[in-house]
UniProtKB/TrEMBL annotation:
<keyword id="KW-0067">ATP-binding</keyword>
<keyword id="KW-0808">Transferase</keyword>
<dbReference type="InterPro" id="IPR018022">
    <property type="entry name" value="IPT"/>
</dbReference>
<dbReference type="GO" id="GO:0005524">
    <property type="term" value="F:ATP binding"/>
</dbReference>
<keyword id="KW-0547">Nucleotide-binding</keyword>
<feature type="region of interest" description="Interaction with substrate tRNA">
    <location>
        <begin position="41"/>
        <end position="44"/>
    </location>
</feature>
<dbReference type="GO" id="GO:0052381">
    <property type="term" value="F:tRNA dimethylallyltransferase activity"/>
</dbReference>
<feature type="binding site">
    <location>
        <begin position="18"/>
        <end position="23"/>
    </location>
    <ligand>
        <name>substrate</name>
    </ligand>
</feature>
<dbReference type="InterPro" id="IPR027417">
    <property type="entry name" value="P-loop_NTPase"/>
</dbReference>
<dbReference type="Pfam" id="PF01715">
    <property type="entry name" value="IPPT"/>
</dbReference>
<comment type="function">
    <text>Catalyzes the transfer of a dimethylallyl group onto the adenine at position 37 in tRNAs that read codons beginning with uridine, leading to the formation of N6-(dimethylallyl)adenosine (i(6)A).</text>
</comment>
<feature type="binding site">
    <location>
        <begin position="16"/>
        <end position="23"/>
    </location>
    <ligand>
        <name>ATP</name>
    </ligand>
</feature>
<dbReference type="GO" id="GO:0006400">
    <property type="term" value="P:tRNA modification"/>
</dbReference>
<dbReference type="InterPro" id="IPR039657">
    <property type="entry name" value="Dimethylallyltransferase"/>
</dbReference>
<keyword id="KW-0819">tRNA processing</keyword>
<comment type="subunit">
    <text>Monomer.</text>
</comment>
<protein>
    <recommendedName>
        <fullName>tRNA dimethylallyltransferase</fullName>
        <ecNumber>2.5.1.75</ecNumber>
    </recommendedName>
</protein>
Length: 313
């Protein structure tokens, strides 16, 4: 099986918790190895959500026959593509990512997936075939009436494995997971069916000591505030994007709801964002550590050695 994998097109994945340095590592490697980047971040897919998602600063430019989101002259795909009022599924991500990996290879370049959304990365790495379960309005309404803790207990009962990694503060995600469990009769975490490998993959995880990661997260949040995150949220609300949307219910945005509703002070909301981001990073690591094929690195130099050797195989 290993030998068969070697015949497949190569794909590099750079993953890790938020604020670990994935963007820098990805850009450095893409420049060195003639690569293009495919984003695997469920927040950076949205247009207008720039500061709160730590989206790399870039611009849309012509790149050959098509337009690409360019960051330091490196084309980025599946970033800045969806209106905040729309939904984007894991299945859609997988299909787009597979298309771009093949396209990048066709142009004799190296595809590098960079991101921290575990489900996106798994869908590509494990070639998941994800069944489509359509939203059910009646079921959704009856679930929405229940308090969050009751929803979580219900989900825990139906899908103990899924309950370990889901963001229990994210009501939208919890409702969707329950909906899929109830309508399909199977645990949400087991809905994915693995397919045959499509690519020969090197997965590199970034390791940062816990205390240092927390310091980086705090510094990043402070920087986001300086860059105008509160104004960004305000503009989104003025454009009638509601807190219930997938785009607005994630870490970086929902923490400011009580500030805009005049329930909490700005400082309280900033502290809440720091705390929730630390918790989010912990959940990301829990997800990634289940995959024994990830090679964890503490420095970019260490990762570079692995990439060089992988590309020469």
């Amino acid at each position: 099986m290993e030998k068969e994998h070697k015949e497949l097109p190569k794909l590099i994945v750079i993953l890790g918790p938020t604020a670990a340095g994935k963007t820098t590592w990805g850009l450095t490697l893409a420049k060195k190895y003639n690569g293009e980047i495919i984003g695997a971040d469920s927040r950076q897919i949205y247009k207008k959500l720039d500061i709160g998602t730590a989206k790399p600063v870039g611009e849309w430019r012509r790149n050959g026959l098509r337009r690409s989101y360019m960051v330091e002259d490196i084309p980025h795909h599946i970033i800045d593509i969806i209106d905040p009022g729309k939904r984007f599924s894991v299945a859609e991500f997988r299909d787009k990512a597979v298309k771009y990996v093949k396209l990048i290879h066709k142009n004799n370049k190296i595809p590098i997936v960079v991101g921290g959304t575990g489900l996106y990365i798994s869908s590509l790495v494990d070639n998941f075939h994800i069944p489509h379960v359509s939203p059910n309005k009646k079921l959704r309404q009856s679930l929405e009436e229940k308090p969050m803790d009751e929803l979580f207990v219900l989900f825990q009962r139906m899908d103990p494995e899924g309950a370990k990694v889901i963001d229990k503060q994210n009501k939208r995600r919890l409702l969707r997971a329950l909906e899929v469990c109830i309508l399909s009769g199977e645990p949400f975490s087991q809905q994915k069916k693995k397919g045959e490998p499509l690519f020969d993959i090197l997965q590199i995880g970034i390791t940062v000591p816990r205390e240092e990661l927390h310091t980086r997260i705090d510094a990043r949040v402070d920087q986001m505030i300086k860059l105008g995150l509160v104004k960004e949220v305000d503009l989104l609300l003025k454009q009638k994007y509601s807190w219930e949307l997938p785009s607005m219910s994630g870490v970086g945005y929902r923490q400011f709801q009580e500030y805009f509703e005049k329930v909490k002070s700005l400082d309280e909301c900033i502290d809440l964002l720091k705390r929730d981001t630390r918790r989010f990073a912990r959940r990301q690591l829990t997800w990634f550590r289940r995959d024994s094929s990830i090679k964890w690195c503490t420095s970019l130099e260490e990762a570079d050695v692995l990439v060089q050797s992988f590309l020469q195989e």
